[in-house]
Amino acid sequence: MKITIDNISIDVEPGTTILQAARQIGGEVTPPAMCYYSSLENSGGKCRTCLVEVSKGSEKDPRPMPKLVASCRTAVMDGMEVRSMTSERVLDARKGVTEFLLINHPLDCPICDQAGECDLQDLSYEHGDSGSRYGFVKRTFEKEDLGPYIQLNMNRCIMCFRCVYVAEQLTNPREHGILDRGWDAQISTYINKALENEFIGNVIDVCPVGALTDKTFRFKNRVWFTKPLDAHRDCPTCAGKVRLWMRGDDVFRVTGRKDKWGEIEDWVCNECRFHKKKTSDWVIEGPTKVDRHSVISQGHYVGLKKPNDPLEILIGKAPKHTIDIHKVSDVNKPDIDLSLIAGPAHSDDFNRSNTAPQPKEINLQESKVKKNDP
Amino acid sequence: MSVKLLLEHDGKEGIRNYETWALNGGYRAVEKALKMAPEEVVEEVKKSGLRGRGGAGFPTGMKWSFLAKPEGVPRHLVCNADESEPGTFKDRYLMEFLPHLFIEGMIISSYALGSNTSYIYIRGEYAWIPDILEQAIAEAKAHGWLGKNIMGTGFDCEIYVHRGAGAYICGEETALIESLEGKRGNPRIKPPFPAVQGVWMRPTVVNNVESIAAVVPIINLGGEAYSKIGVGRSTGTKLISACGNINKPGVYEIDMTISVEEFIYSDEYCGGIAKGKQLKACIPGGSSVPILPANLLLKTAKGEQRMMNYESLSDGGFQTGSMMGSGGFIVLDEDQCVVRHTLSLAHFYMHESCGQCSPCREGTGWMYRILKNLEYGKGKMADIDLLWDVQRRIEGNTICPLGDAAAWPVAAAIRHFRDEFEWHVLNPDESQHRNFGLAHYADDLVTA
User: Fold this and answer.
1) For A46, which residue in chain B has the nearest alpha carbon?
2) What residue ranges do the domains of chain B occupy?
3) Which residues of B touch A49 (CB under 8 A)?
4) Which residues of B touch A99 (CB under 8 A)?
5) Chain B 22-61, CB below 8 Å of chain A: which residues?
6) Which CATH architecture describes the domain B239-333?
7) Which of A46, A92, A158 to mutate to test the interface with B (most CBs of B within 10 A)?
8) Which CATH number fits domain A106-217: 3.30.160.140, 3.40.50.300, 3.30.70.20, 3.30.750.24?
9) For B60-119, what is each residue's pLDDT tens digit?
10) Angle, nearest 10°, between helix axes B38-48 and B99-113?
11) Is A374 exposed, middle or buried (0-12, 13-18, 19+ CB in 10 A)?
12) pLDDT below 70 — which residues of chain A?
């Protein structure tokens, strides 16, 4: 089936969704997805960030769809034409959705463990506005304890339902879900129960924001200071393929291996995730390739060409200045050598133009005496 | 005096009982329908041009013909009796006072669709009505109109009454289906539509109570004759539940040929505005549809008389028109404050949003808070534009129509009554104890 997204055509299998087709094309045209998770059945369609405009329904029925559609849940039709980044309407709707998601988000990124690998950060960077128009008290929830491994911060939640689907499809019985309705809807366990299933730790990986985080990693490190390594072990319950987040020789965190779209490839059991925190537990395969644009690649330069030394380029050439700083500024006059001035420079030092600064006489002994003098 | 098809026997002594109902020509339609082939019944409904009475006005016959009929998979008819739209109470009237008419319609519709198990999903607040319906079902069953091999046709049918727990969102068909299945009433993402995958993933038709009841006169009169009642594509009769500042609130059956003006002022219907006041605004089709100021309500933008039918009420689109909706006719007189009225609707939609998709969950609460500020004199001029922007970004971007339903009243209130909002901003103290007044929306019928 042929589908055209933002004037790029691709052939896909029948039954593919628009979002999957866009991911096959990759790059800019891929709509952001906050709630869709390809390995979870029924997920998607909730966050509305992946809205696209269908400008031509199909070859058979070329009428455009009147409303924007959720690309993650709309199947491709033959000859469909979709506009994602080229449609003003789509960009406006996404901007609106981003704003809606952020009005009640606490924006506590500086203390949030998800910062650096947060989908909401990426979304607001790509589609958000610079400021908020929401002038009311943000919604807050009471703290809830989900046991020793998983930290729930409901204030950060964007209600993507991913964790509910994980619990529904991976664990039996499902121990948590949505309580209440609408504005007050929240993820919770009925009557404060700890989440104990051996695969429940995966809710941490699927959570797009910092609502569900790893308690064993909590406040230990920023993700961009840790270095990801692919590793595996012979695990009786799960595939045992994980990613270790190391700093020096210490394993700070174990997560599933996330692909390009932030979706984990294999579910990881709680034993691997929370208890195997020594390098000796794992067979290390090698460093993970991190996208250069990711903040996690900060300082690692994995697979990166070292930038050319600018001085090498400049050898033999006089650097070209667009303006002469001394013509516009009184400070930093070339004839004044600031290093000769004792103590911090004062504006008076610059006023003595064309004269060498008078170094203040420092009498070490005197100052010592002064100090000791009562 | 207009034609009465649904409320023909309304008010007769003991009409709730099977005997009285049968004496008044009850179950004649079922007898007639069972002699026809199911396809013929569907064809009759198609011919009648009956449009869904739940709000959207989608042709019922068309909806029935879309029902997928895979081999060996049971099909279901679900009646949406979760009538939760503020201002709408026509279904309640039908079910409470004419239960047998409704059950008759259920049997015919089940027969037409081949549904052996049909459900009535009734809202939890109508706590006493399920008993009335269950009694009617028991009576029908005792007389052989329900159960196994009905009247020797080989058609089996059971009707179950399911009580909802009182969520507005469960009036949305897919949320209703989820709730009927015993899950949390969250709307499903469409497609697949219920006609393909509905209750327990089986093909399902979800119809409003009034649509189902209207099948009875269609079979009695024949589709052709039914389609001749009314105007254009608005065929048959419609129940309007009128409320607000009128002399005679209640449920009225109209044949869609009367004008809005006649409906409000004639003694046969609403009987004019209460206490001799003037008409300021009206919501013609239940709280979700756009509000109209009096001058646009009585006459369309083209200067024509506005009639009580689907086409005329929606004439002019949302710019100068509204919708027939579910027929909840709410009248506001000169003493009513549109900002306060919109605030109360916004609070309702905030409370009833299911919380699944972000524009509705966050947007409805945001709109409510902005409106609260405006109403209580803490608003700024920029808030009105912000409110407009918020509703614009909710509308059309949500999973189910609740987002639209929340956005439309706010949009219409700003569109038609912006000066009232501005007056609230400029006169924060005064607006607390005095109404803005009629301004130019005044009812020209009375003032002229």
Assistant:
1) B357
2) 18-228, 239-333, 338-439
3) 358
4) 393
5) none
6) Roll (3.10)
7) A46
8) 3.30.70.20
9) 999 999 999 998 999 999 999 999 999 999 999 999 999 999 999 999 999 999 999 999
10) 120
11) exposed
12) 299-321, 330-334, 338, 347, 349-374
Cβ separation of B358 and A46 shorter than 8 Å?
yes
- Whether B357 and A99 lie within 8 Å, measured CB to CB: no
How is residue A360 annotated by DSSP?
P
Residue with tokens 């499809």: A169
CA distance B394 to B405: 10
CB-based contact A182 B362, cutoff 8 Å: no
The one-character DSSP state at A57 is -
Q: What is the pLDDT of residues A196-255, one digit of tens each?
A: 888 999 999 999 999 999 999 999 988 988 889 999 999 999 988 999 998 888 899 999
- For the domain with range B338-439, which CATH number is right: 2.40.440.10, 2.60.40.10, 3.40.1180.10, 1.20.1440.230? 1.20.1440.230
CATH superfamily of B18-228: NADH-ubiquinone oxidoreductase 51kDa subunit (3.40.50.11540)
Chain B residues in contact with A139 by the CB 8 A cut-off are 365
By C-alpha distance, the chain A residue nearest B349 is: A182
E strand or H helix that includes residue B318: helix B317-320
**Which of these, A208, A226, A230, A209, lies nearest to A217 by C-alpha position?**
A226
Q: Å from B86 to nearest chain A CA?
A: 18
B393–A181 CB contact, under 8 Å: no
Q: Are A144 and A157 in contact (CB under 8 A)?
A: no
Which residue do the tokens 């128009």 mark?
A133
Closest to B104 (Cα-Cα) out of B61, B37, B41, B173: B41
Q: B317 touching A, CB under 8 A?
A: no
Query: ipTM of the assembly?
Result: 0.90
DSSP B146-213: SBSSGGGSS--BEEEEEE--S-GGGGSHHHHHHHHTTS--PPPPSSSPTTTS-GGGS-EEEEEHHHHH
Give the residues across from B293 on adjacent strands.
Answer: B281
Inter-residue contact B102 to B213 (CB < 8 Å): yes
B354/A182 Cβ within 8 A: yes
Of B169, B359, B396, Cβ closest to residue A97: B359
Selecting from B167, B359, B369 the residue whose C-beta is nearest the C-beta of A136 gives B369
Closest CA to A102 of A52, A181, A156, A31: A156
The Cα–Cα gap between A259 and A269 comes to 18
CATH architecture of A2-96: Roll (3.10)
Q: Using the beta-carbon criterion (under 8 Å), do B354 and A101 form an inter-chain contact? A: no
Q: By the 8 A CB rule, do A258 and A243 touch?
A: yes
CB B50 within 8 A of CB B235: yes
Q: Are strands B204-208 and B158-163 parallel, antiparallel or unpaired?
A: unpaired
Judge residue B239's burial from the number of C-beta atoms within 10 Å of its C-beta, 0-12 exposed, 13-18 middle, 19 or more buried: buried
Q: Give dist(CA B354, CA A76) in Å, integer.
A: 28
What is the Rg, in whole angstroms, of the alpha carbon atoms belonging to chain A?
28
Mean pLDDT of the region B153-164 = 94
DSSP code per residue over B384-433: HHHHHHHHHHHTT-SSSTHHHHHHHHHHHHHHHHHHHHHHHHH-TTHHHH
Cβ of A100 within 8 Å of Cβ of B358? The answer is yes
